[in-house]
Amino acid sequence: MGRNPYIVGAAVFQPNFYGRKTLVNELLDDNRKCIYLIGNRRTGKTSILRCVEDNTRGVGLFLNLQGTRGKTTLMSQELVRQIRKKAQKMPVLSRAEWGVPDDVCDVIETLADVAEANQLPVVLLWDEAEKLLELDAQQLECLRSALQDKRYLRTIITATKALRRLNHRPYTGETSPFLHGFETHYVSPLSDEEVADLVRQVKNPPEDRVQASDALLSEIIDLTGNHPFLVQVLCQRLFDDTSGKLRSIAERDLAVDDRLSSLFEIDYETLLPDEQTILRALSKRDASSEQDLRSALELETEHLHRCLLELGRLGYVRYDNGSYWVASHYLRTWLEKFLPRLPGALASAQPPAPLTEGASVSEDVALVQRQLAEARADLKLIEERISQYVLSTDVPLQLIKERRRLQELVARLGGKA
Question: Mean pLDDT throughout 338-364?
């Protein structure tokens, strides 16, 4: 074997798609009409949609919303293009008059009618659904009406947690927020068995499979937390083109490069402030019980439990035998060494420093202005996190207190700047 078999950064298709059998079967269930698939970047969301497209009982229509630039006309045109492409193998889709589309809701309604008239299951597979955040309230209400409550039409959208902000957008009518009616499913870490199959490339012919000892496999699992992208990055580094084996792990293989740092930074920004606080606390110790975290962070029991559950589902933390810890060596390294270097809200975990005694007036003013900018950035982040909750009664008390504290700090510093 000479070719490195580990695919980093691109969507994978059969036979290179490993794991996710339970999740894919859930997504293929015709009784699940609308699904919001939450996952961090580089966890395989696009590959999962492609797998559903290849295995659905009827017709799967994949649409990458990134290319539509948040414009419904482009969404409509791309959807019709995909329909016409599928019609080459499914002539029943040619019976409708699509014309020159500019109304995505009308196209979806027509598609639903064709599907029902021919008893043809159709599933819309929308990737990069954060682009829906760029639509206005009227467009979202139209889309929600077109997508939901259709007998033969299903919808699966993939995005990060950021898409939950749709639930807090103002609406023109009396309809529910866009994501109401969508089931939530998570792209969680792979199982140990799925990682073993991926590392050893068991779908390849025997002569093209990768040799990896059980001990090395255990190290890979511990270092990556079964994050599929991290597994492939590490294995790509370890693969020996000549022998077709994975060599032993060296210190250089544990480095967090710019690619990984960017990945962690963007994912970290999607977390709630308390989730970020928990991660930072866990990065400073080997493992912690829920009671230890509750005492150290002064978080309410139910709220802490919800945060830990969410962090676990998304692969940030692992849990075993009563203890939690940061899921991967690479994420922990980033939290310890890279996060403190970041400016503004991301790295801010301490109250602003007091004015320096003996400093000049200009130095004092500059310090206050810097503190004010950081406080405003923190407040903006808090407001964004609060907006992710559907009901105001769901917002944790800690988050409300932090917003009030920052509002008071901004007012106080604003009078000194």
Answer: 53
